[in-house]
């Protein structure tokens, strides 16, 4: 416990309560001032401080009645102690990747603590949701002046703005009743939930989650964290907590968090099952899928390869063509000169063949792969891992048109041969020297034949959202700086697609080339980067689904679509387009083979 001398500083002599310190803003009106005899009851204890709450609150919901007292060393107080605190008001900005974007936590530091009594009842927890304070369910912030909620003149509106709502509860005891999980338990020990089984929440997924919309990133999500009470249960999306969740409101890593002070209650399982697609290959039905396999390499061990094979064979029904993202080189994230991934691909293909044999659906010939090794450590991802995109295909169903000349640094071009587009190299990389792809995966295009028809398939993995400002950061609305690069990448791929379409005037093409662009775009169907393809005439099959089913990824409880299949006009309508499916097998589950769900589409081609 730390002590300070107040003899040389001006001390506020009037009775100061916690709500005076917290004020009605994101920063304390008393920041930097010394305070004396601040009363409260200890509600929770951490390794270097404790939470204290005033048992005699004011009548203003906009002012928090709780605060964190920082003690440097382990505090000697106990829950239920009534204390009187002297110290200095300070705004602490917690760390994380985007520390400069984080809000601050109002604290009392350099503290002298006097214990008044022990064993006191705790202040009643504020119920979030029904029977308590209504949680904003549309707006995170729409009142920021000059782009920051901390700027003077910003209206503090906890009734309508989620960021202000949680700020008005900072450090206080809260209670969530009938919580339902909208994320799995992640490695950091966090679970995103909705109160009251999702009553008054936004658009729910058909499997229990909650989807984002262009103007609604779901402020009603509550992040449960394990900083105080360890070992949270392993839950899947849709699982329910049978008892109330009680804890204090904290902030860190760009999010408000409920630090539960009691073990989480037993979970009632939602019995979530991994989906199985109905879109299997048929005589004239070509199935094409995209699957981010999350940093796959031999160091993952045989279990991951077996699990992925199981998903590909049993859940995806062995698609004819698969674009894979995040395939790593043979030895994974080791800083050396290895870029070859042949063993990684072959291990996955062997596992698929073994699973097909086990299920009695073995093909005459195993899957084959095509890809191009990157230049060492030039395509992002884990250092030394050399992730890349590539194709698996069933040679009994489709023919890959091999055309030499493709390399890691040479760009593929489009030739028109008798009114039919043809790649200069297959497989080939699209515009690899373009600055848009510096430090990021280069798109790969391959030429396939099915039923006499040529299909050009482009595999993509655009740059990540790393560096974007957090949804609950001080800058509002948050800037998505990473999207600038993705828009440049989308433009490069779009330009290449337009070359294919312009070259495709042959009779057997029906006036246009068959083009599929698919992969991990790291962006939403309504994003500016995906709109670039839409304006060029491509159809995003994600948008053929009901809004509640448009997701391939779950981030902080927000179900969202990052993986897409886009098609040229001819492929985007019946009778050729015969179905599209996001197969939910990973993102909603604590036990994952990848953090992404795959997509699959089926196209009908008549014999020619």
Automatic annotation (TrEMBL):
Query: Which InterPro entries does this one have?
Result: Endo/exonu/phosph_ase_sf, Endo/exonuclease/phosphatase
Transmembrane intervals: none
State one Pfam family annotation: Exo_endo_phos
Q: Which GO terms describe its molecular function?
A: catalytic activity
Q: Where is the Endonuclease/exonuclease/phosphatase domain?
A: 289-576
Name this polypeptide is given = Endonuclease/exonuclease/phosphatase domain-containing protein
